[in-house]
């Protein structure tokens, strides 16, 4: 139990924002204690809004992960990503603005500029494990404190779970009084079908390194969930024949590795054996086409 004076339940949406690669997905996963969002060494892996839900005796925390704010390419897909960030922020009850310990640049400032002044915002200084002299964090935090009237400033290490309880307490106090919106057993509102696509996407990005453009996407064409087996038929949509070759690899070896790793992750997550088929298809120009994006679930 907490030191709350009232007995009223609290529930609300917590948006996690920050420039790519500051550790937003890792933070959300550690806060809710389950692997829901996909993390990667490579920036910009998170395209969809993903919610992770954590419920205890007196509060329900609904976390919203956001895509990294992106300014580099100006196509429909990225305009869509930035719009998602703004929509996420305007509907949040609490915002976690995540920065990398000791690093604050233009990209961070661009994200801060998107955060509405009237939504309580906690500054989360992540990756403190990388800073040997912790005293160095004090002037850094003071500099950032001058930028905005933050509700709290909490240094954490998402990876080492350092100070996550403190962060959770700060969030709890800022949540509005509401009954729980979700059943306590819900971890995410995304279906297994969606998670299957996310897992495949993560493997593709890991195996193709930096070469494959972000414009490729994964569509689950068929998803059959039985008690003892799960069958997944997925299509990877790419823009060019050359991209298709990057994923398939020499004699199909890369695609085989991607499929095997994705299947193993799905089996771990779904708790049953998984039969997985992945096809790579060339679908030119889909990332520049708003209707195309909607068709693939980027509302
Ligand atoms: N040293 C250290 N590394 C961390 C910490 N938290 C996350 N990372 C690493 O930082 C990298 C990026 O983490 P993500 O969680 O994918 O970052 P993100 O902000 O969600 O990235 P996008 O989806 O690209 O916006 C990964 O290699 C993480 O392992 C931390 O507390 N300490």
Automatic annotation (TrEMBL):
It comes from the Bacteria. The keyword Cell membrane applies. One of its GO terms (biological process) is ribosomal small subunit assembly. Residues 200-284 form the KH type-2 domain. CDD domains: Era, KH-II_Era. Residues 44-48 are annotated as: G2. GTP binds at residues 18-25, 65-69, 126-129. Residues 10-177 form the Era-type G domain. PANTHER family: GTPASE ERA, GTPASE ERA, MITOCHONDRIAL. An essential GTPase that binds both GDP and GTP, with rapid nucleotide exchange. Plays a role in 16S rRNA processing and 30S ribosomal subunit biogenesis and possibly also in cell cycle regulation and energy metabolism. This is GTPase Era. It comes from Oxalobacter paraformigenes. The lineage of its organism: Bacteria, Pseudomonadati, Pseudomonadota, Betaproteobacteria, Burkholderiales.
